[in-house]
Specification:
Distance between the termini: 59 Å
Number of helices: 4
Order of helices and strands: HEEHEHEEEHEEE
Mean pLDDT: 88
CATH superfamily: NADH:ubiquinone oxidoreductase Nqo5 subunit
CATH class: Alpha Beta
Strand order of the largest sheet: 1-2-5-4-3
Largest sheet: 5 strands, mixed
Helix content: 10-25%
């Protein structure tokens, strides 16, 4: 396995050269980090260069690093808060790659859409937009996928409240579903251990 990863690592450095920001080999996997400005062109080369030949995008997801290792990530690395990670597969060479790109602006995270390169990215990018608020420039149909169109916020962000902002219920008088502020009051739950007086001992 290591020989295969070494071959892939060499091919990535050879094809991508200065576009490689970081290339980590860990736990039998390679993670390639590229700059946001190079993301689309790198994705194109990963697919089209015969020495790499990543024909398939298996998965794409958003990440919020704001609370990673209790904030250690944001304090000790150059990476901003939001990132997009893709998992790629080459059937030709039988190898895999994790591709990561950081969104430059934390207030309006955006990266290029790779849907024109791998059509399977379509709904994955919509999901990352819905749950993390990451905008994919060039996506032809970027809209919410899992939450409804009136939903406020992005529920997978680390600062999104667990109970949400609103709740919905059916109103019999209006004969429709309505939204209202969340009626659940947030509270800290501390587990209690209650044992009988002679628990575990002789009776």
């Amino acid at each position: 396995m290591s020989d295969r990863l070494d071959t892939l690592q060499s091919a990535l450095h050879s094809v991508l050269a200065s576009a490689v920001v970081q290339l980590d080999q860990r736990l039998g996997e390679l993670t390639l980090t590229v700059a946001s400005s190079a993301y689309l062109s790198v994705a194109q080369r990963l697919r089209d260069d015969p020495s790499l030949a990543f024909e398939q995008l298996i998965d794409l997801c958003g990440l919020d690093y704001s609370a990673y290792k209790d904030g250690a990530h944001s304090r000790h690395t150059d990476g901003p808060r939001y990132a997009v990670v893709c998992h790629l597969l080459s059937l030709t060479h039988n190898w895999r790659l994790r591709l990561r790109v950081y969104a430059v602006d934390d207030h309006m995270p955006r990266v290029d859409s790779i849907n024109p390169i791998w059509s399977s990215a379509n709904w994955f990018e919509r999901e990352a937009f819905d749950l993390f608020g990451i905008v994919f420039d060039g996506h032809e149909d970027l809209r919410r996928l899992l939450t409804d169109y009136g939903f406020i916020g992005h529920p997978f962000r680390k600062d999104f409240p667990t109970s949400g902002h609103v709740e919905m219920r059916y109103d019999a008088e209006q004969k429709r579903v309505i939204y209202q502020p969340v009626s659940i009051e947030p509270r800290e739950i501390t587990p209690r251990i209650i044992r009988e007086e002679h628990y575990g001992g002789p009776h």
